[in-house]
Amino acid sequence: MNTLIISTFSCTFEEFKTDVSGFITSMGQEVVAEYEFVWDGENKSHLLMNVLDMKAFEAEMTSVEAKEWDKKNIVMIQSMQLSLLNKN
Q1: Secondary structure letter of residue 72 according to DSSP
Q2: pTM score > 0.90 for this model?
Q3: Range 27-44 average pLDDT
Q4: Which of the listed residues 16, 81, 84, 86 has the most CB atoms within 10 Å of its CB?
Q5: Average per-residue pLDDT in the chain?
Q6: Residue 57: helix, strand or coil by DSSP?
Q7: How far apart (Å, rounded) are the C-alpha atoms in residues 18 and 81?
Q8: Neighbours of 69 (CB within 10 A)
Q9: How far apart are the first and last CA of the chain?
Q10: Domains of the chain: which residue ranges?
């Protein structure tokens, strides 16, 4: 499932990218097949992901470790599921 997460954070973009990449890598490719960060200023990012196992992804994102990291770094998170439109 194509997913977009827009995050505003208090750390730098590079710190955010490094930490979140670590979370995603630890989930494994059976959960998130691919992902890409889009820089939107020093404290904002758009994260595009192909999430294969939404239940496992949600469990990881609501873990104690993820919640603690969010408390320290996240100002606001918006997320949405995306659908590709086919032009025929």
Answers
A1: H
A2: no
A3: 95
A4: 16
A5: 90
A6: helix
A7: 23
A8: 18
A9: 22
A10: 2-82
